[in-house]
Specification:
Elements: E1 2-7, H1 11-15, E2 22-31, H2 34-45, E3 58-60, H3 88-93, E4 98-101, H4 107-116, E5 119-122, H5 128-132, E6 135-142, E7 151-165, H6 172-180, H7 184-190
Parallel strand pairs: 1-2, 2-3, 3-4, 4-5
Antiparallel strand pairs: 2-7, 5-7, 6-7
Length: 194
């Protein structure tokens, strides 16, 4: 199914999303990668507030390249999401409702997604230049010293993603494999072997 939704996300929108849905996001999302996640975890450990409110928000695991003249941002492709897995359950518990990245997530993240009624989206790796066209503005709002890993506020319009893990824990990385799995007997028949 194809969906067009506004971000930040609300529980009703999230509950209607299913693994495999194509979604176009419009609104405000935030970027954060490894270094920013580590710094947020350290701040939480000291009892400090985070530089962004996570309530209903989506974090895009991305570190952009420099913007060309006349563009809001450079190439904006996704980072491997599992690098943020150790930080993700705590952020979901604080109200984060969505993540954008690429690749599988840990069992702990899956459980936290279900527990918090959240969603994990995938953006297409290798398509950073195309994805950047959906980004209308980019502003560093925290951890400027981290360079490309600083937290940015992005205004996006029709940003294309796929629901990889829905709020029920359905995981496209698992179900797609099963859908296309071919029994060994069929492979042998296709190869002309018995």
């Amino acid at each position: 199914m194809e969906r067009h939704i506004r971000v930040p996300l609300d529980d009703q929108e999230i509950s209607g999303l299913k693994a495999g849905d194509f979604v176009y996001l419009t609104g405000i999302i935030y970027t954060a990668r490894d270094a920013a996640h580590k710094r947020m975890a350290e701040a939480l450990g000291r009892g400090e507030t985070l530089p962004i409110s996570l309530e209903g928000n989506v974090i895009y695991y991305m570190g952009p390249s420099p913007a060309r003249p006349g563009r809001a941002i450079g190439s904006a492709g996704p980072t491997t999401a599992s690098r943020m897995d150790k930080y993700t359950p705590a952020l979901l518990d604080l109200g984060m409702k969505g993540m954008i990245g690429k690749g599988r997530r840990s069992q702990a993240v899956k459980e936290a997604v279900v527990q918090n009624g959240a969603v994990y989206f995938a953006a297409i790796g290798g398509a950073g230049a195309l994805l950047s066209r959906a980004i209308q503005s980019s502003e560093v709002i925290a951890y400027d010293d981290l360079g490309t890993e600083a937290i940015r506020r992005l205004e996006v319009k029709e940003f294309p993603v796929i629901v990889v893990m829905d709020s029920l824990g359905n995981d496209l990385y698992e179900t797609a494999v099963e859908e296309y799995r071919v029994p060994i007997e069929e492979v042998s028949d296709l190869c002309g072997k018995e």
